[in-house]
Amino acid sequence: MYDLRFWIELFLVILFSFLIPGAIxxxxxxxxxxxxxxxxxxxxxxxxxxxxxxxxxxxxANEAAHTSTIxxxxxxxxxLSVALYLLxxxxxxIGVNIVSHLLIMHLAEAERNFDRAxxxxxxxx
Length: 125
Prior knowledge:
By secondary structure, the chain is mostly helical. Helix content is 89%, strand content 0%. It starts with a helix and ends with a helix.
């Protein structure tokens, strides 16, 4: 029972670390036009996936500490575990960068609209 659950959780870590973020990156790069809402949702999805991945990694590390097998101890109790935690950090960082970019673009457009409205009001007086 333990072995099956461990392998399922390890598969989920791989899914949330590599496959789904990779598909999101490819979707954003391949599309020639993409709406702001879609980009926002994809950025938030990357942040959410990173959170799920970090929780799964922590759970697997906790389970590995309580088993007698050497393979999972080497994976989660070594320097390699730092590399495993870097993957969700990178995905979350890219997601935050995407959301930040959208916010900056929205604020710049709002400022331009405000300046245009001020200029139009000054001309109409």
